[in-house]
Design a protein that fits this description.
The protein is mainly beta. The protein folds into 2 domains: 4-141, no CATH class; 152-468, Methylamine Dehydrogenase, Chain H (7 Propeller), CATH 2.130.10. It has helices spanning 4-13, 18-30, 35-42, 56-60, 80-91, 104-107, 132-141; strands at residues 152-161, 166-171, 176-182, 187-192, 198-203, 208-213, 218-224, 229-234, 240-245, 251-256, 261-267, 272-277, 283-288, 293-298, 303-309, 314-321, 327-334, 339-344, 349-355, 377-379, 385-390, 395-400, 406-411, 416-421, 427-432, 437-442, 447-453, 458-468. A 4-stranded antiparallel β-sheet has the order 3-2-1-28, with no helix packed on it. Strands 4-5-6-7 form a 4-stranded antiparallel β-sheet, with no helix packed on it. Strand 24 (416-421) and strand 25 (427-432) form a beta hairpin. Helix 3 runs antiparallel to helix 7. The longest helix is centred in the N-terminal third of the chain and has 13 residues, at 18-30. It is elongated, with a radius of gyration of 25 Å. The chain starts with a helix and ends with a strand.
Amino acid sequence: MIDHSRIKVWLACLGMSVSAVHSASAQQAAINLDFAYFMNEVQPVFLVKRNNNVRCIQCHTRSSAFRLQPLEGGALFWSEEQSRLNYASASAFVVPGADPLESRLLTHPLALDAGGDPFHGGGKHFASQSDPEWRIIADWVAGRTSRRTPTKFVTRIVQTNAAGSDSYVIDPASNQVVGIIDDIEIPHGITSAPDGSQLYISNESRHSLDVVDSRTLKVKRRIQLSGRPNNVAVSKDGSKVYVAIMEMPGSVDIIDTATMTNIKTLPVDGAIHNVYVTPDGRHAVAGSIHTRTINVIDTTTDELVWKLAMGAGIRPMTFDTHPDGSTKNIYVQLSGFHGFVVIDFVKRAEIARVEHPPIAGQEAHRDGLQGAPAHGLAVSPNGQTLWSTSKVYSHVYVHSLPDLTEVGRVFVGQHPEWITFTPDGKFAYIGAAGDNATYVVDTKKLQAVARIAVGQVPKRVGTVLMAVD
């Protein structure tokens, strides 16, 4: 015989009643909780590190009620089998289709004044019901099978900090820091999905590609890589991310963004410093400092199709195009060279070399160059100018295209590094590693108009699209 009194005591300990269980059963019959949505959208919430709070997984792998499976053996995410166990455990604490505040999974970590429970042993993770992570869980309880269709898109500048565990999100309309992506120690390359759903940041500490949800600015997935990563690039259709692996003998990891798995480690010539996708999307171009080689990959087959040996290590690269959109030139900065070279993409040969001249009255800095006196290169969105930073003279040099005539110089702080532009090309953003700042340059006036304080040793900087629910 079933001891109903003991069941009532057990349910009371969980903050539930018999009537709530019956209600849950009725609702469950009407709405199915989607497993895929739970695995890919809800589960990542349980791994997030929040300020002054532990991750859910820290307590709930030891819980006798809502129990999460432990990540063991260096795993960065749950297997499908483990995810199904987590799904079953979480499902017991929700009422599908009902008011979200009838689900213990939603009320327990929610602040009391926002409708949550009086106490949660793991602390209060969500200050309000508008918190994007709370809404992700609420959407699952409501029966969603995919993330909400975004109603708004915004352009942001993301500055990664090479000596920190944070990346700063800048609103180019106000030049204010509007968010911080944390919990990625030594973030390196930054790019975003074309649809604005997520950002991709290479994590040098964990040897992973970290996928950041644009709604929450939290890491939703870490994908194991074959070695220590440097720069990253996304395919034009957003289906793949190419990751430079900075370890010999040399490779580029290729990530499938639908399955969030590392589908291929492509051998190339030399440890890869940077990888880029050409403007037409047809090639990924990877440069090696160690072997002084440029590797060109066909993005349709993901095979190495040609390579070019140079006289020095390959540093930053950028591209311009022919009128039909095909790649015209590769512009390359080289180890030990204070300037850039131009390579004809079709001829696969160097056709020009430009050395940056000294700047009168500007002290030359030789300390901490790390073999790269010039280490930031970009073609403006309209294709009319080439921008190249000088760590020696703390300036960016601007040349007209295609004639390569120098048209201006702008002071952009100590040890300026990478460059990115707003989509309309009106402003350039440059990380100044020696100033812990991002400089904003008016590209028409050729003058710095803002200096934004960021984290420690900012280097890679990128323009991203972000979807806002």
